[in-house]
Amino acid sequence: MPLFNKTPDFNFMGPRRQATGLSVILIVASLAALGFRGLNFGVEFTGGVLLEVGYETAVDLESVRGVLAEEGYENPSVQFFGAATDVLVRLPPVTDAEEGANLGEQAFVALQARDPAVELRRVEFVGPQVGEDLREQGGLAMLFALIMIFAYVMLRFRWKFAAGAIAALVHDVLITLGFFSVTGLTFDLSVLAALLAVIGYSLNDTIVIFDRIRENFRLIRRGSAVNIINTSINQTLARTVITGITTLLVLVALLLLGGNTVYGFSVALIAGVLIGTYSSIYVASSAALALDVSPTDLVPPKREEADEMP
To answer: Residue 4, class by beta-carbon neighbours within 10 Å (0-12 exposed, 13-18 middle, 19+ buried)?
Structure first.
């Protein structure tokens, strides 16, 4: 069933300068948040001991910190993990794996001595060297993905479109990272995987629009670039809306029913899908327009006929 009775005629490129200004403000705010607040890295990246404990009733975080401080644990990070009865405790890294495992068990014993009903859900230990390696490899993975995407789009279309696609992807990643920095949500390996998935989702959306722009550039040669891009976005709007809504329905269900383990993953993907849909229209296409893309950029060169043999 079609979403629209006929192809809509929205002027998406009309407010592109205002949209660019909004994107710049969000990117600057994200960079500022990352510079001053940073990310709340999970134990996979920082190293250390992580305990997830559950109480029968709501617990005061200050009392949990007090118990750990009395036992000599320095700078423990204590926060709720979903409900007010679930608490996540992170202790600074230690160099020895056996010592780290014992440290987690000792911390739980201290909490249990204060409240015998407390339940140990999980204990994880990551050495500091492993956490640092994961952080570096995660950053390199994202950088490598962006470089390969630029090469792919440049070969499939032209470099102006490749620059627009990369601008949209960098926009999506920075704003999503800024969101996690401002909210203080834990940035762990599942969130990194979600960021890579966001890159794929946003790129797919951008490629669909660019494909239609390429077709219309070859069919509507007398129209201006702005009008052709507007027409192309309107023609793909039904597909964009349906894909976005169905994806968000799945992610919201995962957020509400998936539990605490996939909470950060779900939040990152929801934010990324919303930002990626916006950037496919207003960042990728606007960047291509700013680089003065025109129908001649996509017209295949004419082959020179070989001279007839005598």
So the answer is: exposed
**206-209-210 Cα angle (round to 5):** 85
Residue-wise pLDDT tens digits, 163-175: 888 888 889 989 9
pTM confidence score? 0.74
Radius of gyration over every alpha carbon of the chain, rounded to an integer in angstroms? 25
> CA distances (Å), 198 to each of 24, 88, 203, in order?
20, 27, 8
Q: Which CATH architecture has domain 16-39+131-296?
A: Up-down Bundle (1.20)
Element housing 287 (H / E) = helix 285-290
Model pLDDT for residues 90-110, shown as the tens digit of each residue = 777 655 555 555 777 778 788
Joined together, the tokens standing for residue 264 give 């950060």
Q: Residue 264 carries which side chain, given as an amino acid letter?
A: G
CATH 3.30.70.3400: which residues of the chain? Answer: 48-126
45-86: pLDDT as tens digits: 776 777 888 888 877 878 888 888 777 776 677 777 767 788
- For the domain made up of 48-126, give the CATH fold: Alpha-Beta Plaits (3.30.70)
Distance CA 164, CA 286 (A): 7
